[in-house]
TrEMBL record:
PANTHER family: ABC TRANSMEMBRANE TYPE-1 DOMAIN-CONTAINING PROTEIN, TRANSMEMBRANE PROTEIN
Protein name, UniProt field: Esterase
Organism per entry: Bradyrhizobium manausense
Transmembrane regions listed in the UniProt entry: none
One Pfam family per UniProt: DUF900
InterPro entries in the record: AB_hydrolase_fold, DUF900_hydrolase, UCP033909
SUPFAM superfamilies noted in UniProt: alpha/beta-Hydrolases
PROSITE patterns from the UniProt entry: PROKAR_LIPOPROTEIN
Domain of life: Bacteria
Length: 364
């Protein structure tokens, strides 16, 4: 087969797979009304408040959407509290989407409250959360491709709850189209590449809050493009975000060489960087095809060269999640968050520092 024909065939297969994945995603949750607060309260549920900074435009057509797929020139702020049913009535690691909004809090995720905030109210909400929980560490989550606003909010709430994460959760939501087709993939990639400045703005604001003592970034898939850009900006503004201590790249949809180049540019005073990858990541194999065969960081074999040596030289902590299995290799870290957190705790308990051989996986 002619090389061009093979490329066209690969793109066709990728388009079909992306469409199928999009259709599956659509069947998992209602298309409207998810973020309309429920008036029903159930004692046994867990309430997870998520603070939000977003560059999405406010939604005008669906009050249960809050923020649309369209971009905004200004950062907007909000807070959404997600109610999660008891672990005994749900499968941990999954989102139980309401069949019909606002949903049944006994067995489904529902929105307990949702409010728009201005910048001052957002900052005050961070301070209040620290006082209420006695936690002074925050985690900023950056979602990936094909995420609606409600997707990102509910996924982050699930991640925080199932991981029992002792943090103040903050979501940065960039204007992904929330559709799994080739056109949306190209669009999202372009928008992600333009969203780093806004994430830096949010980071600087959180860093300036005296109640917060430590910041951790967690990015997923294409959201790691946004995060890398923000980190580059941080490096050029030394000291402005001194509380940023950890960065976790989960299934990053970025080129390996691009990542290594960015890591080198960050210099020696950068935060600790952890890479969570799966060698069988189906979504990243499709992305690799779309990128002309360029290896995606989130799907490499970290024991192979040149990956092993480059990661060790840059002192990257590597967590290979391939052995965890599951149906969704691209979201494995969220689906199996308890196992992943155990891996992280064991690694840190061993006292491994950045100067050690970080190219070893944590799968054993």
């Amino acid at each position: 087969m002619h090389p061009r024909s093979r490329t066209v065939a690969s793109l066709h297969v990728a388009a079909v797979v992306l469409t199928v994945l999009a259709c599956i995603s659509c069947t998992m949750r209602p298309l409207q009304g998810v973020l309309v607060p429920s008036s029903e309260a159930v004692e046994a549920t867990s309430q997870i408040p998520i603070l939000i900074g977003t560059t999405r435009a406010r939604s005008s057509g669906d009050p249960g959407e809050m923020f649309s797929r369209e971009p905004s020139t200004e950062m907007a702020f909000a807070q959404v509290t997600v109610s999660i049913p008891p672990d005994g009535l749900r499968k941990v690691g999954e989102i139980q989407w309401p069949l019909s909004p606002p949903g049944d809090p006994r067995k489904e995720f529902v929105t307990a409250s949702a409010a728009n905030l201005d910048r001052a109210e957002f900052n005050a909400a961070i301070t209040q959360a620290v006082k209420a929980t006695h936690r002074n560490k925050t985690m900023v989550f950056v979602h990936g491709f094909n995420n609606r606003f409600d997707d990102a909010v509910y996924r982050y709430a699930q991640f925080v709850h199932d991981g029992r994460l002792p943090v103040i959760p903050i979501l940065f939501s960039w204007p992904s189209q929330g559709a799994g087709n080739l056109g949306s993939y190209d669009h999202d990639r372009k928008v992600a590449g333009q969203s780093g400045a806004a994430l830096t703005e949010l980071l600087v604001a959180v860093n300036a809050n005296p109640a917060i003592k430590e910041i951790t970034f967690v990015c997923h898939s294409m959201g790691c493009l946004v995060t890398l850009d923000a980190l580059r900006s941080r490096a050029s503004r030394s000291g402005s975000v001194s509380k940023l201590k950890n960065v976790a790249l989960v299934a990053p949809d970025i080129g390996f060489d691009e990542f290594i180049s960015a890591a080198e540019a960050l210099g020696p005073r950068r935060p600790r960087i952890g890479l969570f990858l799966s060698q069988d990541d189906v979504a990243l194999k499709i992305s690799t095809s779309l990128a002309g065969g360029t290896s995606r960081l989130g799907a490499i074999d970290p024991k192979e060269e040149p990956y092993r040596s480059a990661l060790a030289q840059q002192k990257i902590l590597v967590f290979d999640l391939t052995h965890l299995g599951g149906d969704d290799s691209h979201s494995r870290a969220f689906d199996e968050v308890s196992s992943v957190m155990g891996m992280v705790e064991r690694r840190l308990a061993q006292g491994q520092q950045l100067g050690e051989d970080a190219s070893r996986t944590a799968s054993r």
